[in-house]
Amino acid sequence: MAQKKPSATRTTSDFEREERSQLSPFAVPPEGTAGRVHREPGHAFRSEIQRDRARIIHCSAFRRLDGKTQVFLNGTGDHYRTRLTHTIEVASISRTIARALRLNEDLAEAIALAHDLGHPPCGHTGEEELDRLLKGHGGFDHNEQSLRIVEVIEEKYPMRAGLNLTWDVREGIQKHAGGHVHPLKGNRHPSPSLEAQVADLADEITYSSHDLDDGLDAGLLLPEKLEAVPLWMRAIRRARGEYAKIDPGKHRGFVIRCLVTELVEDLVKQTSANLARSKVTSLEDIRNYPSRLAAFSPAIRRELAALRKYLFKNLYHHPAVAGANRQAARMISELFHTLAANPSLLGRKAKSRIKKYGLERSLCDYISGMTDRYLALQHRELVASKAL
Question: What is the Cα–Cα distance from 45 to 164, expressed in whole angstroms?
Answer without folding.
Answer: 19
